[in-house]
Amino acid sequence: MSNRSRRSAQSACERVAVIGGGVSGALISVALAEQGYQVIALEKASIGNGSSQRSLACIRAQFGVVETVLGMMYSEWWYANAHDLLQTPADRRDEAIITQNGYLFLYEHPDAIPPWRLDACRIAQAAWEEGQSNAAMHVTLGLPVETLTPEQVHMRWPHLAADHLIGATFCQQDGFLKPDLIYSLGFRRAQELGADLWENTEVTGAQTHSGRITRLETTRGPMEVDWVVNATNAWAPRVSRRLGGMELPIAPIKRYLYAFQAQRPIPGVDNWRALPMTIYGMGEGRGAHSRPEAGQDPGHLLFGWSYPAEPEPNFTDEDQDAVQPGFRHDVFEERYGEAVNYGYATLRQACDFIPGLDECGGITATTCGYYGATPDGSPLIGHDAHLSNLIHAAGFSGHGVMHAPITALLVAALLTGQAHDGAVALPTPLSGKTINLATFDPQRDFAQTQREAYVL
Ligand SMILES: Cc1cc2nc3c(=O)[nH]c(=O)nc-3n(C[C@H](O)[C@H](O)[C@H](O)COP(=O)(O)OP(=O)(O)OC[C@H]3O[C@@H](n4cnc5c(N)ncnc54)[C@H](O)[C@@H]3O)c2cc1C
Questions:
Q1: Fewer CB within a 10 Å sphere, N or C end of the chain?
Q2: What distance in angstroms lies between residue 56's CA and the mean position of ligand 1's atoms?
Q3: Pick from 170, 182, 176, 181: nearest CA to 100
Q4: How far apart are CA 37 and CA 195, in angstroms?
């Protein structure tokens, strides 16, 4: 008997409850059903109820933490082959799950910043040094990242002003995703493999015995379990508490997206559709970003920006779509005599790099949802500190959609015991590379960990 069939024979008897009907829950369900586990996915509303349907859904492997770079290289490969891997029926393959327009990090020239903003000049210089050093690390790992001069940027994307830049990094295999396809086709495949999906079923508590969860309490009644996976992201601390698990350092933080429509597509229609995800400067007070959206008119861009915000640990489902004062694009608001609007502040950052952008269009819609933010900007994927059969897969900040394939692979490795010396070997095309589980361990000491440099 091969290792895989021995594993399947053993796991066939084991029942796993996967809590959460987003992209993470969907791909974890597929990965565990493929290993022969009896999977039951539990979602308190309908699939996509959380951040997965409110996401900008970009994907990049340009990160600062090596494990995340490798994980995202795997995710990019996985999404590029997703229809085959999910055995999507022919009539649902028309829409691409991933669009690889690339990811362009623009770094502003310190001389382009007024000298009285001394801090901003220093931040811009430091950000560029870090960007170049990370690009060198990416190339060493096999990720094709290009470091570009301002002139090269302007040659490729003429709407971007060279004189504002000190340089840029670009990776063509980055891009953006279709999360609704990921969770709907993911759960379709999981069910085809024998998994059950219970929507409108909330997990309310658990019975435990000798440091293990023996039974889950749900609004559909109790169920016996061998394993539980907490894939509820911004809800994960509450769910962990309900189950008797550890306190999870995940802060639910509201994040907004702004739909921008220009009357004319500045770089031309085809060039507009091919625009990469673009980050307009790095460092404090910067980080506004935009990307085109498939199926929208040329001239349409989705903008985001992670301004400082307070955690909302008790947010409700309805709060997900509540646009707070200061964020409405259609209402003029003042604070201390100053106009406040974060959408326009976001757009203004981009205007420093695309002269005239704000004169040719405006914001037409504002939407929002929650990040599940962690102290070091990397997710929590691993065993609970108190309950040995509870695995957390949550705390993805703005990266949970891109993380879903590698999250699923790591969760499956944790259940099946495929990790060796705390590391999980990656399959082809990344064979020979491993991911150190300690990087994502929910029990890690955050005072000692490397903070992710690129949390957007
Ligand atoms: C504005 C915005 C922009 C973003 N941009 C990006 C981006 O560019 N790239 C990227 O990769 N990520 C991005 N993200 C983050 C990404 O969307 C999330 O990290 C990802 O969707 C998390 O997916 P998930 O499946 O882990 O959780 P979710 O999609 O949030 O799903 C969790 C589910 O758990 C369910 N649930 C909660 N409690 C219970 C319970 N007790 N019982 C049963 N079910 C329960 C909820 O109803 C919910 O459906 C963005 C997020 C936002 C808000």
A1: N
A2: 11
A3: 176
A4: 8
**What is the rounded average pLDDT of the residues 219-225?**
98
Distance from C-alpha of 143 to C-alpha of 75, rounded to nearest angstrom: 13
Tell me the three state secondary structure of residue 204: strand
Whose C-alpha lies nearest to ligand 1, atom 14? Answer: 398
- Tens-digit pLDDT profile for residues 34-86: 999 999 999 999 999 999 999 999 999 999 999 999 999 999 999 999 999 99
pLDDT at residue 27 greater than cutoff 50: yes
d(CA 361, CA 107): 24
- Closest-CA residue to 76 (of 146, 216, 175): 175
Q: Token digits for 310?
A: 């307070």
Q: What was the pLDDT predicted at 325?
A: 86
pLDDT for 8 equals 58
Domains assigned to the chain = 3-91+178-249+375-440 (3.50.50.60), 100-173+252-373 (3.30.9.10)
Pocket test for ligand 1, best of 27, 177, 233, 312 (most atoms within 8 A of CB): 233
Cα separation values, 62 from 104, 106, 146, 170, 175, Å: 10, 13, 11, 9, 11
Q: Decide which of 358 and 379 is more confident.
A: 379
Report how far residue 56's alpha carbon sits from residue 77's, in angstroms, rounded to the nearest whole number. Answer: 20
* 89, two tokens: 């029926």
Pocket of ligand 1 (CB under 6 A): 19-25, 42-45, 49-52, 54-58, 202-203, 231-235, 239, 255, 257, 304, 369-371, 396, 398-402
* Per-residue tokens: 24: 């993470």
What pTM, to 2 d.p., does this model score? 0.96
Question: Percent of the chain scored above 70 by pLDDT?
Answer: 96
Look-up: residue for tokens 């897969």? Answer: 393
Token digits of residue 295: 């199926």
- The CA–CA distances, whole Å, from 453 to 284, 294, 390, 403, 450 equal 12, 29, 29, 16, 9
